[in-house]
Amino acid sequence: MSTRSRGCGQQQSPGSQSAGAPSERSKKGKRTKPDSAGQDRAERETKKSNLSRREEEEDDDSCSSAVSSPLREPYMPAVEVERYPDGTQIRRPVDREISSAYNHTKAIYYEKIERQMKLPTLIPDTPPNCLDNDPTLLHIRESAKKIVLRAAQFIVGLSSSFDGEPLAWCSGFWIDLDSEKRTGTVVTTAHLIRTKRPSLDAWLCKDEFASDVKVTVHLRCGTIAKGCLLYHQKHYNLAFFRVKMDSSIQLPSFSDELKCAQDIFELGRDESVNLVINHGKVEYSNPTRRIPRPHLGLKFNAISLLNPVQVEKILIEYKIDEGLIVHEVSSGSPAEKCGIRVGDVIECLNGKCISTVVELEDMLLSIMENSGDGLKPDLDVEIQVYFVRRHLRRIKTLRVNVSDDGEIIVRGIHIFSGKPY
User: Fold this and answer.
1) Do 404 and 233 meet the contact criterion of CB atoms below 8 Å apart?
2) Distances in whole angstroms, Cα of residue 283 to Cα of each of 89, 346, 361
3) For residues 375 and 211, which has the higher predicted lDDT (pLDDT)?
4) Which pLDDT score, from 0 to 100, does residue 253 have?
5) Is the predicted pLDDT of residue 339 greater than 70, yes or no?
6) Predicted local distance difference test score (pLDDT) of residue 238
7) Confidence band (pLDDT; 50, 70, 90) for 49?
């Protein structure tokens, strides 16, 4: 019984001390216990802090699927030593080592914030595009976004350099794939390999192009590949590149049901390989092989694209409301020799009415497609002309040159000899 009472501490002998008067030994034990508990608590907090920091660092530097620790901003509370009657605080100076460690920790925090904001789900700013800021497209915005995202997989960026200096950045898209050789073909603008542009007038064909330009293809996944020039066409401003691929690519599907001036979305990539989206119209429908083209020696403005006030004047004066107004005639060309002058109107080509320059280019390409694969040096085309100065409508046959080079519009000059015309 006595052993049990001592073990339980519930019974006392007559000569023992009461519970209300503890011994010096028990007092000493009670005095040291709080300090020991505080130290243990501090150690546990320090270990917990170090563990959290290690978990964050491991989460940032590895591909672990473990849940990451929440990112928290470091905070060092100030220790108030004294407060003046007016409320001004006097704070304990911060130890230099502690301050340095705090600043280092805060720098690491901001680095993590910067890395975090690069996540696709948290990117604060993206390039503006017509699907976000064009109110006229609200009625098709959702469906257009789906179409654009499907087409975006075919769009690449291309950069070029010449003699070690950056030359141009352009966009392009895949048009062909050789699975056995693991190569693909990209089409883009010939501006990518243009080294000199002495004139802003492309019809003078003074631009210079280099076949040894270094071209890099930038894929949307962030990888790059070398582009090798296959062919470039000056008039249509096209260049074709062969690209060696390490991974498979998808090719777009093409439709021959597009119509001139049909609404489309023009896609590209900026120098950060971000998708660029613009709303536009169909301009040309080009084949992907060599592109020979009849050179008419003429430049045009479409009546349908003029100011309505001018269209009305043309209609009243000539009874014409569609066609191509001759804007320039190449000196010495068959068109000039048959009497076509600036201001005359071309109404038909080979018996088909023309209302836009796009339609004319489509007809010229169709003529070459129907003529076979052989590149003929010239051919005959039939045009219906309204001569505005004589108010006469005539059909003329022009024997024009055929070339896959750029068409040059030669401007005639008159060497003044002191005598009037």
Assistant:
1) yes
2) 73, 20, 9
3) 211
4) 84
5) yes
6) 92
7) low
| Residue carrying structure tokens 């509370």 | 77
How far, in Å, CA of 364 to CA of 367, rounded?
A: 5
CB atoms within 10 A of CB 125: 5
The tokens 């990888």 sit on which residue? 223
Residue type for 395, please? I
Q: At 379, is the pLDDT very low, low, confident or very high (cuts 50, 70, 90)?
A: confident
**Mean residue pLDDT across the chain:** 79
Least confident segment among 108-122, 199-213, 324-338, 345-359: 199-213
Query: Of 226, 110, 94, nearest to 159 (Cα)?
Result: 226
**Percent above pLDDT 90 for the chain:** 37
Can you give the three-state secondary structure of the chain, one letter per residue? CHHHHHHHCCCCCCCCCCCCCCCHHHHHHHHHHHHHHHHHHHHHHHHHHHHHHHHHHHHHHCCCCCCCCCCCCCCCCCCEEEECCCCCEEECCCCHHHHHHHHHHHHHHHHHHHHHCCCCCCCCCCCCCHHHHCHHHHHHHHHHHHHHHHHHHHEEEEEEEECCEEEEEEEEEEEEEECCCCEEEEEEEHHHHEEECCCCCHHHCCCEECCCCEEEEECCCCCEEEEEEEEEECCCCEEEEEEECCCCCCCCCCCCCCCCCCEEEEEEECCCCCEEEEEEECCCCCCCCCCCEEECCEEEEEHHHCCHHHHHHHHHHHCCCCCEEEEEECCCCHHHHCCCCCCCEEEEECCEECCCHHHHHHHHHHHHHHCCCCCCCEEEEEEEEEECCCCEEEEEEEEEEEECCCCCCCCCCCCCCCCCC
Q: From residue 100, how far is each of 59, 94, 125 by CA, in Å?
A: 25, 10, 33
Kindly state the average pLDDT of the residues 301-305. 90
Beta bridge partners of 217: 158, 225
